[in-house]
## 1
Amino acid sequence: MTTADPISLSEQKKTIQFTRRELILDRLILARDFLKRLWRSPSARIGGIVVLITVGISVGVPLFNDYDALRDRDLPSRYAEPDCVVKVIQSYINDYEEKTTFSNMTCDHPFGADKNGRDIMRRVGHGMSVSLWAGVVAVVFSLSIGGTVGLLAGFVGGWVDSIFMRLMDVILAFPSLLLAVALVTVAGANLQNGMIAVGITQIPVFARLARSMSISIRNQEYVLAARSIGTRQGGILFNHVLPNSLAPLIVQSTLGLGTAVIETAALGFLGLGQQPPYPELGKMLADSQQSLLSGKWWVMVFPGAAIIMIVLGFNLLGDGLRDVLDPRLKK
Amino acid sequence: MATYLARRLIEAVPVIVGVSILVFLLLHLIPGDPALAILGERATEENVAVIRERLGLNKPLYEQYFIWVGNMIQGDLGNTVRGNIPVANEISSRFPATIELSLSALTIAVLVGVPMGILSGIRRNSLIDTASMFIALFGVSIPIFVLGLLLIYIVGVELHWLPFVSRLSSSVQLERVTGLHTVDAIIAGDWTALKDALNHLILPAVTLATVPMAVIARITRSSMLEVLNQDYIRTARAKGLRSYVVVIRHAFRNAMLPIVTIIGLQLGTLLSGAVLTETIYSWPGVGKWLFDSIIARDYPIVQSMTLIIAMIYIVVNMVVDVLYAVIDPRIRY
Amino acid sequence: MRKVSLLLVVAMVLALVPTVSISAQGGNTFVFGEFGNAVQLDPAVVTDGISFRVTVQGCEALLFYDGSTTNPVPGLAKSWTVSDDGLVWAFQLEEGVMFHDGTPFNAEAVKWNFDRWRLTSHPQHFAESVFEYYDYMWNGFDEGSLIQSVEATGEYEVTITLAEPYGSMLNTLAMPMFAIASPAAVEAAGAAYGTPEVGYSCTGPYKFVEWISDDHITLERNAEYWGEIPGNVDTIIYRIIPDAAARFAALQSGEIDAFEGPNVEDLDAIDAADDLFIQMRGPLNVMYLAFSYRVKEFRDPLVRQAIAMALNRQEIVDAFYPPGAVVATTMIPPSLWGFNPDVPAFEYDPEGAKALLAEAGYPDGLSEVTVLPVDENNMVIEDAAGEVIPLTLYFQPVQRPYNPDGEGIGEAMVSYLADIGLEAQLGSVGDWSAYLDARSNGELNGLYQLGWTGDNGDPDNFLGYFFGAGPKPAEGYYYNQEVHDLLMQARSMTAQAEREPIYQQVDAIMHDEVGRIYVAHTGVPLAFRSRVSGYVTNPLGTEHFKFVSVE
């Protein structure tokens, strides 16, 4: 075992020679313990379930439901009201003369239709997938760049550290949304650029976290020991600093995912994200503004609920993960 | 202390220079021609040339940068591209609206967030704790534009409780002293105007306050928990001091450091949020204006505003440091 | 320490506070909900309708448009004579008129204004301003301009000499950008004339009071107005509320009394409400879908006709436009003379469109097209190789009076095209100015939405402006020698009876070759509270609030 093992938490473990089978077994046990502890945290439990549902929808809908946004049009159904379950609930709450029941309801547009007569349920499903994907890409981007910059800056120190961290200060001195807006305006408004722009604004968060981890680990006794026996810098970085920084970075990534989903949706809301006719939650919400005051609530409520669901799920899961993975942060 | 502040100011210089260069480059990289922002459907080549000349867009980029910096240092923020109006005047007529909105939001966030956090911290794992932490979690999870639209629909459209458009009713006349309508109303002693201004302020301020409120509540709670576990609190309790004395005199005072930090850090959140809040509520402040100016490539506005925002950010962070020393006399610079 | 930070905040706030005073207002107030901030209140140097809606209340031109028509009638000029060759115009001015700053209105003031607009050497022809409308309506400045000289031939008589006869002279003089400002006020304020601190100073029924950017603009009744003010409004306030839905809400709550362009969705609710009503401004506009003739495939008339037949324009008009809007068949709207009622509409026929595409050699449709290069005269080089790009339909990024929802209509359009096998991308190029930029540089290589609202009620303003010159990048490199010659001929004639058949013929030619796809002519709805009466709409959009009364 000379390569990095993300599970090895102490120097001691590294001296034990595992056989391949034992190694797998060991990992399985660790994973099981981890999940067990995770399940005990209520926020992780609820968050995990919500995230599973979100991911299920985001992966399942595009997989099983072909959606041709280009051809989707039904102008005569412009702003059709939600039918199906919503109609049933409505007819009981408002006590309509003619009650819609589960037996006589129709299900053409369970979430209603938008200004082009397009089915909102379908677009919310595909929109969730887009929003989640955008969040993941943004976080992976800022994690990989911010994490690398932070770890290196903290590890190397000196002028490299100063320059990188001043650069982060410059980025932080902008309100993040405005910086993202400026970047997207330069690069051209589309989903890809939106994801990257949001990723860039989140870099300092990861860089600062990684740097503080890196500095504290750099001075740990086992690192000093490794250094004294002549381990090369690269070896220390990959075998000690990186693995031990992972837990807080994972926690931050989960929480950052919620932020990234909100920010990319905000860009969409401002018209700088996903371009029409393709569905995206922020864009759908922006479009809902023009009809909201004339009482067409369904155009706003369902995409809004979808965003809340995604973000809430990841924030809950992130809280739970933090409690379990990173006892140092647990107060 | 003075030397410390001086050092901080000097350290801020490269950041400000970095911000100015970044803004300048970004803006000039935006494709399209600001001249056309002025001219519209009826633009001709000669007109475009005149405007480009007026804006100094024909000079090399580095020269434009130094001209701009020179003017900024002399306090000349330039004129807007659209309308050729002095940027300084435009900023001063809009900034009070954003200041009023942000300060109200921050006040709400602190007044709600801190007590919520303290209560949660003291009664850990109680119903209050679970409830407030769920509210806090919901607060960071609901995007401003979703909450804003929901509030408009429910409170404004369905219930007709509060107005959700602009800052003051047309029927209300108010002399402009500070530009903060609530303050102006108090100065004028006009209680109808004050009520009207407050009514207009509630929905936008609550919308903008949610995220900072949630963050402050969470930080306060964890900070309280940490402090309550310290030995001296146990000692104080053991000595028989009453619970609220312990909490207020000892625990909260010591838990304040991270809370103050996080309040300072919320500034960026507030300004980002102001863009969306002002858009949704037709609030005549700088947030929406700055966004429009970026899109319309109105260079003088964007350049001046971003620099001002960056400076405010730096100043606020310094104020936070100063507050540290006030709260914790052990900290010396 | 606390004091220090408090002082900081107070200092910051005070530093930002301008000293603005509000004069007392009383009496009847009319509040108009405006969709954006005015650009500037010097009508000579702006082009946006928001600014004009303010300046037109206070700044008057030599002629007015009569009520809800586009016919020019006496304004500051009470009568005029013209020489037989149509070149020398003498205007007799109203006497005893005062500008808002108390200086007298006379022939010298009129001459001063014309000289300011037309002479680039004039000290108040500010280098930092663009006198764009003057340039465009009078063919440039200085010697190049249609106006050769303006002289005060009496205390109250002005003589204007033209280089050549100009068919729409009187209509053009009535445009709000050719309003007469007080020379003393402009000289005193310099380039700051028209900015929020200064406002305007003219002769009209309402004086400028204050302008808080993005918040409101206030005007007050001019007690010394020379003419009659039929309405009873003492104070006009423009409240700036960018979102149409929010304007509607403000109207419901009584915050504003009127606004232009409610969302189509809200029209029913306004109709149903007891205390609100709608008034329609007559249609004088057109929305169209233009072809870029650099696209090789679009040079085939069969393809253009297929596209015309693929779009269900009636369905689009029904869904997105206010009631009363009609499917357009020509560039000139039905309300304007020169309209050709005999041009038929293309019927919606996707099967027929597919057949035409097949006939043109594209049985499987298209998803990519070839863009051809142009020579130095902007003529498309037909036999060049060209560049293959995705087929794109560009939509207008903003709401315009003729286009209530560019994006929604664009989405519908690409879906119709997809139905006949044309897989078009929906293209956007940033904001409105970026869109216009791309259009005038000929970068919208595909189909693109645009439209036009009449400036002065003359058909040359519709057809001549677009197709009168050679092939232009801004018009998709469209060129037809016959159309060009006819339009140039009509421009130099002065008799309406002679010009009318020419415009009708041009629209017929352009229909036969499917030069462009016309989508809609629409009226523009204005919403009011029922306390408002007497509002006079005008198809040009220059509406005078002096007719308005409030209860």
## 2
Amino acid sequence: MTVRVNPNLARTLQKFGAETATQCFHCGNCTIVCPLSTDENQFPRRFMRYVQLGMEDKLKGAIEPWLCYYCGDCSRLCPRQASPGEVMMATRRYLTSLYDWTGLTLKMYTNKSFEWLTAAGVFAATLILAFLLQGSPPYDHADLSKFLPRSYVIFGGMLFGLGLAGALFLNVLRMHKSIIYGTGIQLKYGESLKIPLSVYVKELGTFLYHFVTQNRYSQCTERSRYIKHFLLVLGFLVFAGYAGFMVIAEVIKEGFRVAFIEGSAHAIFPALHPVRLLEYAATIVVLYVVIDAFLGRFAKKEPIHQHSHSTDWTFLVLVGGTVLTGLLTHIFRNIEGMAAATYWSFALHLAFIVTLFVMGAFFAKWTHAIYRPLALYFIKVKESAFRWQNLPI
Amino acid sequence: MADKIGAYICTGCGLGEALDIEALAKVASGKLKTAVLKTHEFLCGPEGAAMIKEDIEKEGLNGLVIAACSPRVNTDIFKYPPEIICDRVNLREQCIWCHPANDEDTQMLAEDQFRMGIVKVKEALPPEPYKVEEPATAVLVVGGGLAGITAALEAAKAGRKVVLVEKKDNLGGWMARIYKQVSLRPPYNELEDPDIGDRIKEVQANPNIKVYTGAKIEKISGEPLNFSVSIATKSGTATERAGAIVLATGAEPYDATKLESLGYGKYANVITTERLEEMAAKGKIVRPSDGKEVQSVSFILCAGSRDPEHLAYCSATCCIDSLKQAIYVKQQNPEAAVYIFFKDLRAPGFHEYLYKRAQELGVVFFRTESPQIEEGASGLVIRAQDVLVNDTIEADGIDLVVLATGMVSTAFSGEMILSAAEEEEDKKPGMEIATVRPDVYYNSDLLNLEYRQGTELPMLKYGFPDSHFICFPYETRRTGIYAAGSVRAPMDVQTTITDATGAALKAIQSIELTSRSFAVHPRVWDDSVTEFFMQNCTQCKRCTVECPFGAINEDEKANPLPNFARCRRCATCLGACPQRIISFKNYSVVQIGNMVKSIEVPEEDEEKPRIVVFVCENDAYPALDMVGMNRLTLSPWIRVIPLRCLGSMNLVWVSDALAKGIDGVLLMGCRHDEDYQCHFIKGSELCNYRLSKIKETLDRLALESDRVRFETVAIMDYRRVEGIVNDFAKQIEELEPNPYKGF
């Protein structure tokens, strides 16, 4: 098979953050030092070459970018300052944009002004919507369910969530296709791969395990980053679990009436209630990690913080904004006479959340949370299917 | 003859304990009685050295035999004026350090070596140095490019008069034609305007430099310190005298019309490095086919280089030039796609930073062999097997393909001429005569020397008149003539500057040494002169053919006409002469012959064979010293005689040795092939050639040809030397004793 050199793709990849790839002279130090690179799935060196030449075919079906957790060992050891870690990051961004059927990710990653305008637009739209939909809240004490009717939040949230999940599902289908048919063990001429549903179900554990634990990250040389990341994910899961649990509880209780109910669903948890303590812990963890990342990206000491793509900053701002406004809402809500401030910060909190989900979960950074375990899962599924079909691996 | 000899035996360094010094001293008695004979326990100490000094003054000694350590150590202590002949008998490294102490055989070895030392001094006379009358001390520089200009400037700065001859009407050569040069200052990755203009101005402003442009060398005759040079200029012939010559005529790009396989001549948009340089110097880099600015450029490195069908070697600068030109393209248009196809990218030294810069600018590199170039729909298409991807890659839409062609020495033009080739001899059937590689040169019309061995400099490899790069930097095989820059080897700007500076210094060195009657590299301490006893000359031409440095001319009757200032004192002529008419005052056929004869050969029934080992004093002798330093053990039968060069080995010494009853002769010289290590280029090769003819003599004496062995060794081969010596000794032990013992 002839590989066509594609200078246009090479140029595009630079915009994804792979500017340094041309500096690589392929010594292979990065691949040697990487604790995650294996004989079957070698990286980052070969990706440096794919990126230099714009080798679309090789990049498209690759799973290796998802196996890299960017500890930065490779960039630290690179004799040419070609930052292989960042190039792997860029390939992840590129893959995310490939999986995205709307093509918006591509724009988001390669066009800074588009990205920021979109973020600002979503943010503003949410704020406007919140004010348009607001009820008539009391100002002597804060009652959020009066500010934004419960039905709007729960139903709107469900719609929003389902919409995002649906779009993401289409992306996952595209990812599935490119990995199953594009990488690793290849089918020989005349062979066709049938994957029974049972295989998908059987291997589902892989996905869940890696989704929750990010265990591969712990194989990186520096464990502290894994611990931070793990805690961060736990924090996110606490938030998501809390919100999700609330919504699901309502739906179970009220069924379809959920779209019309009013009034406060529950009182604020008492000060030492375990759920409240858990929320506090999650807030502290997420805030800590976000500040840490902010400082790191300013100091540029560690390889992973030396190259900041515009989307990295956006993401940090959105997560930080979400947590801070959430925290403020909580504080104001518990102080007498701060009702107006509570509503304001809650509206901002909503605007941050929506923007974060639109920008992060659908188009950019957050997607790795699902793509990484999925990549591992699909590879398992593929192997399993080959075995099931008695095809040579 | 040295008739007042002082013999000194040192008993330090364990010599006194390992040897019977009294018995050893008895050697210097009878016929070999010396005027002074002393032992001292610390000869190289201040007392010992003072003692020798005192004896020289009191007794009027004119010869010294110092039996102590190797002549390669303590050279500053045992240093005497030239009128005193001195020999150092190596009792330490080559006797007690590699033979058992207090052993009968070791004692015999020491006595023989001491005896030979005395004979050597007895048979020698102080040299009568040669002086050039009316010495010319100017340096002639041929070629006015970067190398020539640098050599001229450096020589002038050192206070020499310089004559600079350039073929073209302007100075500057290749460097005057380029657009930018790579900066030689930190950060080493910038391109800057060529600084050759400043250098030319400096030459023109220097009163010590006389410049001839539009001129060429018509004729050079003479010798160092006395070269007569005829220069053909536009206004007639000028004559100059020079003391030494720097040849810096540079190189030409390889003829790209031979590269049709890479599309040159077939497609208009395939050009050479030279052409792109011109284009860049003029302004825009465009497609020759339609004059449009280029969007995509590919460089093919090693175009015709490191390819046995074209140039087998690496031209050292094409990679750097292409990196530079890739940066031209990127500077003209940062979005342009620039590809470099290479076999091996060679950007040595600080040029690595240039490579890095090109990478940072986004130049993409392909490691590949033999890329294929074709015309495609939207431009040229290059297909090649990429080593990293392990697949065929295809780059299309290429506007311009640049072939990085190599360089060909200007000395590699004209007709090939073989000189010093062996003339057909009347071979007897069954006789295998070793061949000596002929000297090759091209009549490239650069120097037009009036030398018996040809008009230009002999080449080493690939048409470059180079010399061994470790042993003889800047040297050529013509004394007083030094090649610099890309005429002698492909090189880049920085190397050329260093090289030309080195050559200028070598030229000055040659002038200085010659004016003090010394030889030039490597025997720079040597002021002895060859003597020809012409009454016995048979005009056989052996000496004029074999002299590795073309020092000997010939008259029309084939009589040798030596040029003493061209001579390097290797004594190859001494070994070559079948009539044995060539000698030095302190190194002659008789002298070495008598040393051989002074070896005491025990009776047959004593079962103590004797082996004479003739060793090259440049490599094999120090290797033998190292055998001692490493305390390896050698056979006690050997008697070592160092020679200036194995090329000076005269066959008569072998027959002398065998006729005296010595059982074997071992010769150890240097490697002789393309990557020769011989200090005198062909010495060991000529020795081997002569030995191949000795078989006949041996047959006549009814002796086995196994008794004579020739080996090549390098200076660090001491372990091999141990093996060779002991192997040979074992082989000799197995043979019957030499039947001529006792005759």
